[in-house]
Specification:
The structure is a homodimer.
Chain A (H helix, E strand, L loop, with lengths): L2 E2 L6 H19 L5 H13 L5 H10 L6 H13 L3 E4 L4 E4 L8 E7 L5 E6 L5 H9 L2 E12 L1 H7 L2
Helix pairs in contact in A: 1-2, 2-4, 3-4
Chain A binds a DNA duplex through helix 4.
DNA sequence: GCAGATCTGTTATACTATAACAGCTTTGCT
DNA sequence: AGCAAAGCTGTTATAGTATAACAGATCTGC
């Protein structure tokens, strides 16, 4: 497993890598990575944390790319639908996917200390939830896996 | 595992059992199961599905138990905090716990066909998410596990 | 019977999200 | 190139979800 997010790293490279991976996927699948969509993805990659739709809208507005909520929500719908970004249901916020182009069931570790969110990638269909679903005759189409708690750094600062 | 929710059963008995289990827990822990709180729990148990806070508020209002949103939200906060009810983050709705008094990590199966929600109980700390968290030095305090898909009945009706 | 803690009632407001419709741009086809 | 269909954008309006803040009532323990 990998849990990108709680450690410093080179942001410039993840932005470029992320955008180009998305562009590649769009080309391959005949999707349009329009200016607004691309910019929203960049914003998410730049900030590198979970952002609310209205946070994003504010940036778009300041750049003259849109001023009304639907602009942000549509771009986010596109990005989440195609796996370029994810919605953190627990926070009603959005975050760039840390493995654009990969096939995965995303899971998130949300630190309540520093508000950072790390994305872990789990193999689909192998967990207890899948077993429970199978036992109940339930067919999973989408799974939300989110854990709240403290990252190593914040835990060190709070308790002994 | 158990996935209560997709099969018919005796509601009267779950309401009584649920309320009395909650009452017992409250007594044991010095918590106040006030009229509003008890009634909200009953409403959730009666409906036996996920309800929005405003759905609940509407019932409370019709019964003269409260008319403003905070009344419903406070009761729901109490119930969820103490494990008598759960919030389904994906739906922004609430549901009574199907195992009040039990110690568990709740997981939910949300049928997009019939909108029923089944609660499964998983043993805490034994899944892949826990492993991923441990590997990242992350301490989980709360987990959200929700799967959307089709229950056996709805799947049968949709596809071949 | 008093002090502190907890719960309730209420107003106001903040935050999150989508419906609906008009107009523009791109795409695919001939 | 010219056209039609599909998809994207802009905008207005509104729906849906949630909480802050403060005053007053009630309960609890001493």
């Amino acid at each position: 497993m990998s849990a990108i997010g709680f450690h410093p790293h080179n942001h410039d490279s993840c932005i470029k890598t992320g955008v180009s991976a998305a562009a590649k996927t769009c080309t391959a699948q005949g999707l349009q990575l329009t200016e607004v969509r691309r910019r929203v993805l960049e914003i998410l990659l730049e900030r590198h944390r979970a952002l609310g739709a209205y946070d994003i809208l504010e940036v778009l507005r300041s750049e003259g790319l849109g001023s009304q909520p639907p602009v942000a929500y549509r771009a986010l719908d596109f990005l989440t639908k195609h796996g370029f970004a994810h919605k953190i249901e627990r926070l009603n916020k959005f975050i760039a996917c840390s493995d654009i182009g990969g096939d995965h069931t995303p899971a998130f570790l949300i630190c309540t200390g520093c508000n950072q969110v790390a994305e872990a990638h789990l193999e689909a269909g192998t967990g207890r939830l899948s077993k429970a679903a199978a036992a109940a005759g339930f067919t999973i189409e989408r799974a939300v896996l989110e854990a709240e708690g403290l990252c190593e750094t914040c835990r060190g600062q709070t308790a002994a």
